[in-house]
Amino acid sequence: MPTLEGLEEAGLDKIPDLAVAQMRFELGLQANVAKELKIDQSEVKNKLMDKVKAGYMTEIYKEVSKEFKLSVNQSVLDEMEAKNAEQIKLLTDEIEKAEKNEGESEVRDAMVRKCEYLTSIGSKSDALTMLKATLEKSNTTGHKLDILFHLIRLGFFFNDNKIITTYLNKAKELIELGGDWDRRNRLKVYTGLYSMSVRRFEDAAKNFLDTVSTFTSYELMDYHTFIRYTIICSMVSLDRQDLTKKIVEGADINEVLHDLPLFKSFISSLYNAQYAEFFTSLAEIETTFKADRYLAPHTSYYTRQMRVRAYGQLLESYSSLTVTYMANSFGVSEEFIDRELSRFITAGVLNAKIDKVGGIIQTNRPDKKNWQYQAVIKQGDMLLNRIQKLSRVITI
What we know:
Elements lengths: L17 H10 L3 H6 L4 H14 L3 H10 L6 H28 L2 H17 L3 H14 L3 H17 L3 H17 L3 H17 L3 H9 L13 H15 L2 H9 L2 H7 L3 H11 L3 H16 L8 H17 L4 E3 H8 L3 H13 L5 E4 L4 E4 L4 H28 L1
């Protein structure tokens, strides 16, 4: 596990500042949701605007004012635009001076400084153009990867998945040609964060777990947030054996869990079959989802999948059990359990059936060999159909 004190220095500069994007997300929550999450949107608005003004984020100031129908202070806007114009001219002059009097390395460094400034003020299109130009000027693999990481962060800031996927793919291609250990690990964290944001939890868990002991991507998140994301993705995607090895018994994870009591309870309650406690923890986890801009769209899906996992874990231990026993185990009503199980059984995600007259739940353990046999038959039929279609084409 990385040493927490002072290790943020190992990360790249926080450009763009993703905390601004999170505050913007919180400000956009419906009032009743914000109240449920105990988010003071008035306070968030003040902090956001203070940060925007202090950083001369002109484009963000205009976008936020328009999006949330806030009054624009024209004198403040004029001052921000003047400051931007002044700084951009200065940085452009530095590039021109470097092109005339210095080498390629100095030119590239001057271009990077302009990229960073344009990104920091929220000028998306100008930053994107400048970053692409700088990428073309970069000769080494390391420098190119740093620009690609910058582009990916720009995508995260503006929730632009096209930018993220385009430059993640370029980074993956480039890393195969030669990338140092630090950048390889950084790419895994970036890939994991994107995968999590688009509900590919298994891929996210794999990438996050590979970097638990080597995490340095503080430009994306702090270490505790990274561990929370790792746990969230692992709990829904790993089988029990891997969950035991990598999470329950994971030394690096356990070193942080004393600071994350909710997530400690979330893990232990499911692992130790304390289902009522697990449901309580899951309800609180649901709250953290709603307050997180990457996870919020997946709140319902995730909680549903975790309930299915818990139900399945209990059902696997018995050939049959009563609805009453199961309801008591989860600390809910019999009506709730009956409704939940009926829905999941009908959807085919739980192998069981309910005897409503006797109040008994019977498990139907799938016959693995029979399933494999049916799969082979199905694939064989598909192959024969393709051969027949091909033979017709050849005959013609």
